Write a sequence for this structure.
C-alpha cells in the first residue's frame, strides 16, 4: 500500500520536518513516481533499489519505519522482514496493516504503533504523533533495542533446532 503512504505525504506536505524516503523498484514504483509528480511533492524522495551493503546506512537516517500493507486477510499472518530490520536498528515502527501476527508482535515488544491499513489520514496522524512526541520515540527505541536479541538469526536458529530436537524425542 505504498501509494497510501504517498497520499499521507500529501497530507503532511506542509511539515518541513517530515520527509519520506521510499526505496525500491517494486511493481508500484512508476505509479508512485507519477503520484509524487502529480502532487508536486517536495517531501518525498524516491530511490531505486540499493545494494544490500547500503541498506544499514539508509536505515540509519530514518526516524520512523513505515510498514504499509494492503487491508487483505492474507496480511494478518505475515511478519514483514522490515519490522525486524527496524527493531534491530532501534527505529520506531508504524505498522499499517490488518490486525494479526505483526500487530501482536509490535504490541508485545513495544517497538512501535499501529494505524488503520490503507488509510492515508490514519498514517499521517500516526506519523505526526511520532514526530511530535520525542519521549514516545525514545521509549519505543529502548523497547526495540531490548527486543532485538530475541529476533537475531542466532537466537532464531537455536529455537528452530530446539523445536526439531523436541519433535524427534
Amino acid at each position: 500500500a505504498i501509494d497510501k503512504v504517498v497520499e499521507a505525504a500529501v497530507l503532511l506536505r506542509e511539515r518541513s520536518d517530515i520527509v519520506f524516503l521510499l526505496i525500491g523498484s517494486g511493481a508500484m514504483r512508476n505509479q508512485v513516481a507519477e503520484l509524487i509528480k502529480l502532487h508536486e511533492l517536495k517531501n518525498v524522495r524516491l530511490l531505486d533499489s540499493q545494494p544490500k551493503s547500503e541498506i544499514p546506512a539508509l536505515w540509519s537516517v530514518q526516524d520512523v519505519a513505515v510498514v504499509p500493507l494492503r487491508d487483505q486477510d492474507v496480511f494478518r499472518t505475515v511478519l514483514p522482514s522490515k519490522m525486524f530490520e527496524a527493531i534491530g536498528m532501534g527505529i520506531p515502527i508504524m505498522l499499517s496493516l490488518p490486525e494479526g501476527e505483526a500487530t501482536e508482535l509490535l504490541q508485545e515488544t513495544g517497538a512501535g504503533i499501529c494505524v488503520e491499513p490503507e488509510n492515508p489520514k490514519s498514517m499521517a496522524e500516526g506519523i505526526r504523533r511520532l514526530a511530535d512526541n520525542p519521549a514516545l520515540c525514545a521509549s519505543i527505541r529502548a523497547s526495540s533495542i531490548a527486543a532485538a536479541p530475541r529476533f537475531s538469526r542466532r537466537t532464531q536458529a537455536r529455537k528452530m533446532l530446539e523445536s526439531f530436537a523436541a519433535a524427534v524425542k
